[in-house]
Amino acid sequence: MKNSIKFINISVTANQRSTQVLPENTNRKAIIIQNNSTTTIYITFGHSASINSGMRLIPTANFESYAVTSSSVHIVTAPGTTADNIIIIEGTPDI
Prior knowledge:
This protein is mainly β. The protein has a single domain (5-93), classed as Jelly Rolls, CATH 2.60.120. Helix content is 0%, strand content 51%. The protein has strands at 5-14, 19-22, 30-35, 41-45, 55-57, 62-65, 73-77, 83-93. Strands 1-8-3-6 form a four-stranded antiparallel β-sheet, with no helix packed on it. It has a four-stranded antiparallel β-sheet with strand order 2-7-4-5, with no helix packed on it. The model has no long low-confidence stretch (mean pLDDT 91).
């Protein structure tokens, strides 16, 4: 089907060091990030993540956007914590 979007779904773990969870992608049409952990995570686009900056995503919350940046996506948690089961869903054109 023309103009449809395919989605990839990955599960990642965040810790106190910034982790790139998605590379730069100029074809990205949608992004969903769901924090299924018990720890707050911080998300940034295009550069390393650090605590108390970027977008704060509390436990069980999610972020969804269809007007997204093509920049890389990075996540981090507070020192001494780990966030398991962060779900990242990226939508790209289904060609």
